[in-house]
Amino acid sequence: MIEVLNGGTRATIQDAGRPGYRHVGIPQSGAADKLSFALANWMVGNRWDAPAIECALGGLHLRFTEPTTIALAGAEMWAQINGLNVKNYTAMTVNKGDILTMSFVRDGCRAYVAISGGLKIPEFMGSASTYLPAEFGGYEGRALRTGDKLTASNRPREAPRKIPTGYTPRLSRHIVLRTRTAPEWELLSKPSQRHLFVSPFVATSATDRMGSRLRGDRIDSDNTLSMTSSPLLPGTLQLPPDGQPILILADGHCTGGYPRVLQVIRADLWLLGQIAPGSQVSFRRCFEGDSSEILAGRNSFYSGEHGGMIEGFAF
Amino acid sequence: MLIKPPRILPYGDSALLVDYEVEGYSEVANTQLHHAAKALRSDSVWQEIVPSYKSILCVFDLAKMTMDSATKKIKKTLSQTPKTPQFSGKIIEIPVVYGGKYGPDMAAIKKSSGLTQSQIIDTHSGQDYRVCMMGFIPGFCFLSEIPPALQHPRHPSPRANVPAGSVGIAGWQTGIYGLDSPGGWQIIGRTPLKLFDKTREDLFLMEAGDTLRFIPSSKAIF
After folding, report:
1. Which candidate, A6, A109, A110, places its Cα nearest to that of A59?
2. Cα gap B16→B128, rounded to integer Å
3. Is residue B85 part of a domain?
4. What is the pLDDT of residues B52-100, one digit of tens each?
5. Total domain count for chain B?
6. Do B140 and A231 touch (CB under 8 A)?
7. Rounded to an integer, what distance in angstroms lies between the CA atom of residue A19 and that of residue A266?
8. Are strands A211-215 and A246-248 parallel, antiparallel or unpaired?
9. Which of A96, A219, B132, B162 is deepest in the core (most CB within 10 A)?
C-alpha cells in the first residue's frame, strides 16, 4: 500500500485517458506528458498505459508500506527517498516505511511516479484518469491529499529497468512547439501570422490541465469576428479578442468560441504537459509532409521493431 | 432548401473540419451534419467525431492515415448523406423554473427585450429546440436559435459559478449547464434535471440531434 502524506500542489491519477467522448463534452484527459508517463511505467515493467501518479509542480510525499519498485520521470523535481537524493528518469526499489518526497519543480511542470503492477483504480468510461472539473475518474474524482491510500495491482514485482542512452527526453524552460494551421488561421492578418512564429510567449499563472493562458506581445485579431461555438482539441491555440492566446491542454473544453489559429503537431503534444506557469512558449511552423515523418520517426524510436522499447506506445 | 456543400479544412496535422458555410443557425445544415456525423462515427478509423452547430471535427491517427486519404473518406461519406434528411431523435421535456433566484439575468432580458417575464417565458418555451452540440463541459447542451426578441450578448466577463441545470442565453444560442461551472451566459431559469450524472447508468440525458421542449414550472424539486 502507498500512503499519501502530502498531496502537494496537485497530484492526480492518470492513465492514457478516455478518447472518443468529445462529442458529449468529455475531454480525453490522461497523462499530460504521455511520453514521460509511458517511460515511468516502462521502467517498472508495466504496460505503458497503467495508472500512475501525475504530480504537478511538486510537494507530493508518499510512504510505502511494503517493498516495491517505483520509477520517476517527467519534470525535474528535487526527489528524495528518506532524505537521500534520487535521480529522475530512473527506477528504484523501495522498502517498507520508505518515504518519497518530491520538492518544488525546477524544469518542466509534471512528474510521474509509476509503481510496479500499476495502481488499482476503478475505471470510469474506460479510463482511470482523473477529470477534476466533473469530479470523476482517478481517486474519488479528486486530487490526492493527506491520508489517501493507494494500492498497486499485485503482480510479481519486476526488476527496475534502465532507460538506454538517448531515450530520455530533455526538458527546458523554453518550450518550442511545432504547429500546423487551424481553421481560423486565414482570418489573421499577415503581420499577425508572422508575429505568432517569431514572438515568444510566457505561460501565466492561469495554467493547469485544462489550458494555459499565454502572455506576450498583443496579437491583433479581427475583433468584428464573432464565432459560433465550435470544436477544440488539445494543442489548439485560441485567440480571444484581447490578443492573448490560450493553449488548450488534455482536460480542456471540447468546444469554444474564439478563433482557432494554430494546432500543435501530434508528435509534440506530450510537451504541453511540461508547460509550467512562467515557462516560455514559442511556436514554429511545420510543413505537412514533415509532420507525418516526425511522428513516424518518433513512434518507431520509442515503440518500433528496431530498438523501440515501449510496446504499443504511440504519440 | 439546399445549401452549399461543406468545405473540408485541415485542423492541425491529424484532424479535419467539415465546415458548412452558413450564417448564424441553419436547420438544414445542422440536420445534414448530424446525419453525416452519425455515418462517420460508425467507422472506427476516427478517433473523435465532434458535430457542432455548423461543422464536424474528425480526428484520425496520423500514423495510420494521411490527410489525403482522410479527406477522401469524408468526401465519400458526405456524398452518401441525403441532402435533405429527415430529422430523427428523441423529444425530451425539460421542466424549468424561470426567473427569481434561479434566473438572475431575467431582469436584463426584460430590459433589453421590453417584454414582461411571462412573455419571455412564453417566448422561450414556445418552441422546440434542437440539441445542436454537446460540449464545453460534460452534459452542456447547445441548442438551436432562440426568437430574436430574447437574443442577448453574454456577460463581458464570466460568472465564477453557474449552478448545474441553469438555462442560459448567449447571442442567438440557448443552452443548459451540465455541471456547476464558471460561465458567461445570461441565466433565465433552472431545471432540476441532471444533464450529466456520473452515478446514473445513462450518464447523459440527451445527445446531439435530440429535440428539447421547455416546460415552465412554478416550483420544481431541486
Report:
1. A6
2. 31
3. no
4. 999 999 999 999 999 999 999 999 999 988 777 676 778 999 999 999 9
5. 2
6. no
7. 14
8. antiparallel
9. B132
Burial of A261 (0-12, 13-18, 19+ CB in 10 A): buried
Residue-number span of the structural domain to which B200 is assigned = 91-216
> Is the torsion defined by CA of A160, A166, A172, A178 positive or negative?
negative
Dist CA B78 CA A216 (whole Å): 41
Contact residues, chain A, for B138 at CB < 8 Å: 24-26, 134
How far is the alpha carbon of A101 from chain B, nearest alpha carbon, in Å?
34
pLDDT, one tens digit for every residue, chain A (315 residues): 999 999 999 999 999 999 999 999 999 999 999 999 999 999 999 999 999 999 999 999 999 999 999 999 999 999 999 999 999 999 999 999 999 999 999 999 999 999 999 999 999 999 999 999 999 999 999 999 999 999 998 776 778 999 998 999 988 889 999 999 999 999 888 999 999 999 999 999 999 999 999 999 888 766 545 578 899 999 999 988 888 899 999 999 999 888 899 999 999 999 999 999 999 999 999 998 899 999 999 999 999 887 789 999 999
Record: fold of A174-303: Cyclophilin (2.40.100)
Q: Which of A58, A55, A68 is nearest to A97 (CA)?
A: A68
Query: Within 13 Å of residue A288, how many CA atoms lie on the same side as its CB?
Result: 8
* Domain termination site, one of B79, B107, B124: B79
Residues B133 and B23 in one domain: no
* Domain ranges, ordered by start, for chain A: 2-150, 174-303
Could you give the CA distance from residue A151 to residue B197 in angstroms, rounded to a whole number?
27
Q: Quote the minimal CA–CA distance from B60 to chain A in Å.
A: 11
In whole angstroms, give the CA distance from residue B207 to residue B209. 6
The CA R_g of chain B, rounded to the nearest whole Å, is: 19
Is position B208 within any domain? yes
How crowded is residue A205: how many other Cβ atoms within 10 Å of its Cβ?
11
Flag whether B28 is in a domain.
Answer: yes
Transcribe A51-63 into DSSP letters: -EEEEESS-EEEE
Beta-bridge partner residues of A237 = A247, A262
Spatial contact of A121 and A138, defined as CB atoms under 8 Å apart: yes
Helix axes B27-41, B67-79, angle to 10 degrees: 120
CB atoms A228 and B52 under 8 Å: yes
CATH classification of the domain holding B128: 2.40.100.10
Rounded-to-integer distance, Cα B178 and Cα B166, Å: 8
